[in-house]
Amino acid sequence: SRIFYGRKLFGDYDLKVEQAQFSEINLSTCSSMGTTVEIRKSRPDHHTRSAFQPDFVLIRQHVKNISNDYTNIVLGLRNGGVASVNSLDSIFNFLDKPWVFAHLIRIQRKIGKNKFPLISQSYYPNFKEMLVTPHFPVVVKMGHGHSGLGKVKVDHHYGFQDIASVAAMTNSYSTTELLIDSQCDIFVQKIGTNIRAFKRKCMSGNWKASMGAVILEPMPMNERYKSWVDECSKLFGGLDMMCIQIMQGKDGKEYIVEMNDSTMSILGSSQSEDYKLVVDLVISKMEQSSTFHKFLSFASNF
């Protein structure tokens, strides 16, 4: 919340910012009265509780992961008509990675594989269908995990059968992707109209590039990456914040692996500048919101 300190709406109206994790939030909505949010925070030395009606929400935490699902909170905010970054409609569309990947497939079919090199993926709705995969070695991803969770490398069909037996315990879908002998990951992030690219190199030798020591450095933007961002940011009614993850093989080929929304990690040495861009984006969206224009109209007539 410190990043909003001193900022005002329309240069005149102060902002009151409440920051909390989904686990600390509860809410209720009424079609005529809007949304009331309650935040309860427990610390070793004290407990706090606050209740208020939010005008706007910036969502930076994953709504759903392997162990928690806060979809009900998003539904409540949407039911109450609360504006947000990204839009709550788009946040809902990011609840499951295969759903997002399906839309990336549509982009590839529209503009071609050469212009949009999406990694090949197989989808299994449950363990019963995990009988065969096109290639080995593969990366198996179980459920909606983040930061390497639920991700396993499988070298042969015997290992794939073992993973299928583990998937039977999760009651979730799984996907497989060809394991790329990569030299680095590339992240292309968009915040408002600003686009940056970063390269991440794993120094630990782990096949999961996010594990162990990494080197992160900025990259020059090119038209190829910009065209990918332009296409992806049109999805789900428009994405004000998003990031495309690209894997670059040791042969120089690039593969688009996944896309993240406003819950993306903000990377690199430009973090302080990027957080300022986030604040600018939120204030701009708030000033465009019909809710605040109604308030200003009321204030001017008072």
UniProtKB/TrEMBL annotation:
One of its GO terms (cellular component) is synaptic vesicle. Residues 2-84 form the Synapsin pre-ATP-grasp domain. GO terms for molecular function: ATP binding. GO terms for biological process: neurotransmitter secretion. Gene3D superfamilies: 3.40.50.20, ATP-grasp fold, A domain, ATP-grasp fold, B domain. Residues 86-288 form the Synapsin ATP-binding domain. It comes from the Eukaryota. Keywords: Phosphoprotein, Synapse. It is found in: Synapse. InterPro entries: ATP_grasp_subdomain_1, PreATP-grasp_dom_sf, Synapsin, Synapsin_ATP-bd_dom, Synapsin_pre-ATP-grasp_dom. Pfam families: Synapsin, Synapsin_C. Belongs to the synapsin family. This is ATP-grasp domain-containing protein. It comes from Helobdella robusta. The lineage of its organism: Eukaryota, Metazoa, Spiralia, Lophotrochozoa, Annelida. The gene is 20213309.
